[in-house]
């Protein structure tokens, strides 16, 4: 029995008691996909209920991988119904094609029973290992940074003042507008809410005490550090990560230059010098916002605000925020540099490490601020 290579896939059935012979015809190819699927479904149903089923390829014009897979799928369905199946009149190419494109029934995925308590303990263990690894990495990096600073101190000719001033311009000078804006708005909001709440007790003027102490001890340095972590910390990670991807850091090592001296130390020193200056600017902006809000909502003049502010705060109140800022700058710079050096050779890795750097830096800034708050409260400063 012959068939045109372009004919649609079809078959005929010959029955002999419990035995069935299915003679295939036409082209069993993907070109006639709709007809191919219908013929394969009918083929799978045709052999059900028989004891023996022979599938004859004598009349097949063409068969490709899709057709061979569907034919073998129909044969598997017939065999699953209890019939013995075989192929007949196969040429060498068809034999290879059916063997390579054979249908394979996937086993359903086994659902593993998870012990919730064990799973929680495993997650906690993994989290603890990760935290421990990050702490060890940070300590090792701090040691390398200290040695680099010692080398520069003993040999001032290795210092890179041009690089440091360049980074201070980017970290400090160009950050002034956003730092002033954010702190000014937060100062306005805190003063407004303080006046609203204290007015119920006839003590709205104490909002000046609250905004003065809160801004100088906590809010000024905290907001500024968070902004610098998001702005400058991400920039440092992106810069070092891009250099790592382009193998510029390896090139520095080949030239006998230490990346810690050339890349890390100038950036961290610039951050350490910049953050106290920005904290001072942020404090003034927040107090200015509080002064404006106190005048608008409670009629307190600038002179009265400043007199009350002098009575409310002392030199220690002002110094607390400035003392915190270099340590926060060190934490931000270290985390940004560590994550920058962890970047691999893809843009996805760069984006992931920048995100990790910003999140970790903000978390550590708040954590360090909490430690300082406990310390200063303990020493009554």
Walkthrough of the structure:
The structure is a single chain. The protein is an alpha/beta fold and 381 residues long. 71% of the residues lie in helices and 9% in strands. It has a 4-stranded mixed β-sheet with strand order 1-2-3-4, covered by helices on one side. It is elongated, with a radius of gyration of 38 Å. The mean pLDDT is 88.
Layout of helices and strands:
Elements: E1 10-16, E2 19-28, H1 33-46, E3 52-63, H2 65-80, E4 84-88, H3 92-100, H4 116-154, H5 161-171, H6 176-199, H7 206-245, H8 248-254, H9 259-298, H10 302-312, H11 315-341, H12 347-378
Please summarize what this structure is.
The protein contains twelve helices and four strands. It has helices spanning 33-46, 65-80, 92-100, 116-154, 161-171, 176-199, 206-245, 248-254, 259-298, 302-312, 315-341, 347-378; strands at residues 10-16, 19-28, 52-63, 84-88.
Keywords for this structure?
single chain, 381 residues, alpha/beta, Transcription Regulator spoIIAA, 2 domains, four-stranded mixed sheet, 12 helices, 4 strands, 9% strand, elongated
């Amino acid at each position: 029995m012959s068939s045109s290579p372009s004919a649609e896939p079809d078959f005929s059935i010959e029955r002999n008691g419990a035995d069935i012979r299915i003679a295939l015809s036409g082209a069993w190819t993907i070109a006639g996909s709709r007809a191919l699927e219908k013929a394969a479904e009918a083929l799978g149903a045709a052999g059900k209920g028989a004891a023996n089923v022979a599938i004859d390829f004598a009349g097949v014009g063409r068969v490709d991988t899709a057709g061979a897979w569907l034919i073998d799928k129909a044969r598997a369905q017939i065999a699953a119904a209890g019939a013995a199946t075989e192929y007949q009149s196969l040429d060498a190419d068809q034999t290879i094609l059916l063997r390579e494109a054979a249908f394979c029934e996937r086993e359903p995925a086994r659902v593993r029973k998870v012990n919730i308590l064990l799973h929680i303990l495993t997650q906690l263990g993994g989290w603890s290992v990760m935290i421990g690894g990050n702490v060890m990495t940070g300590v090792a990096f701090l040691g390398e940074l200290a040695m680099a600073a010692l080398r520069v101190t003993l040999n001032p000719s290795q210092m890179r003042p041009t690089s440091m001033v360049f980074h201070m311009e980017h970290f400090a000078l160009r950050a002034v507008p956003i730092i002033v804006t954010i702190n000014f708005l937060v100062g306005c909001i805190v003063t407004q809410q303080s006046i609203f709440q204290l007015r119920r007790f006839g003590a709205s003027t104490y909002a000046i005490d609250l905004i003065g102490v809160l801004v100088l001890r906590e809010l000024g340095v905290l907001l500024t550090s968070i902004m610098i972590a998001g702005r400058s910390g991400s920039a440092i990670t992106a810069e070092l990560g891009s250099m790592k991807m382009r193998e510029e850091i390896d090139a520095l090592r080949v030239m006998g230059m230490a990346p810690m001296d050339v890349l890390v130390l100038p950036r961290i020193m610039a951050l350490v010098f910049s953050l106290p200056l920005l904290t001072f600017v942020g404090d003034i902006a927040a107090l200015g916002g509080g002064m404006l809000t106190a005048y608008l909502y409670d009629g307190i003049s600038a002179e009265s605000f400043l007199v009350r502010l002098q009575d409310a705060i002392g030199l220690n109140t002002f110094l607390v925020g400035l003392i915190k800022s270099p340590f926060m700058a060190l934490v931000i710079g270290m985390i940004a540099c560590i994550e920058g050096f962890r970047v691999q050779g893809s843009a996805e890795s760069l984006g992931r490490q920048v995100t990790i750097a910003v999140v970790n830096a903000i978390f550590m800034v708040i954590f360090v601020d909490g430690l300082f708050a406990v310390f200063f409260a303990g020493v009554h400063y």
